[in-house]
Amino acid sequence: MDDDTIGLHPGGMETSSGLYINPLDPDPKLITAQDIAHHLSLICRFRGACKWHYSVAQHSIYVSDMLNMMGESTINQLAGILHDAAEAYLGDVIRPIKHLDAAKPLRLAEHRLQAVINKKFGVEDADWKLIKDIDNMVIGAEARQLMPSGGRGWKNLPAPADIKITRLPPDVVESWFLAQLSNLMRRLS
Question: Among 3-12, 27-36, 95-104, 150-159, which stretch is predicted with the lowest mean pLDDT?
């Protein structure tokens, strides 16, 4: 028996809701807000190198909140909370690895999956440059507040977003993410 095949399922990966999705060829019907919220709430940013468990879901909420505080449109706020949703199915890969030439297939897979998610949730026409800029500002705050170095030595660290990052358990973040996502989807429809 080939150890590399143990645990593989022909339908792809099993999600927290028990669905099977192939993240390399995703069926939009199998992508759910509940799975995204649950998975992202358990994935720790910065490969777990921060002072406490701080999830991709909480990061995404802060991006969406910043867009709200700026008076941005509902579609941009919704895109902000979903901007890392592909990581629910592919994991969070740190930037130094993600930008290696060897990681190009991963970047392409993430881009394809994110495009399917964006279409499913109706945010493909959001202002993605603005969202990336806000994402980077949140990263600036995270580095300064959560990392052992306080962000010293980080290359091109942007000015931090004006947020106070709080320590919250994953189940609380999951509920917060789902509530905010549902509210934004209602407002968009």
Answer: 3-12
Short-list 159, 158, 23, CA closest to 91 = 23
In a domain, 83, yes or no: yes
158 in a structural domain: yes
Q: Which pTM was predicted?
A: 0.93
Query: What is the DSSP-derived secondary structure letter of residue 21?
Result: E
The letter for the amino acid at 48 is G
Say how far apart CA 45 and CA 139 lie, in whole Å: 10
The total of structural domains in the chain comes to: 1
Q: Report if residue 5 sits inside a domain.
A: no
C-alpha count within 13 angstroms, C-beta hemisphere, residue 148: 3
The token pair at 2 is: 């080939």
The two tokens of residue 171 are: 């189940």
pLDDT of residue 3: 65
Tokens encoding 12 = 């792809």
130 alpha carbon, distance to own chain's centre: 16
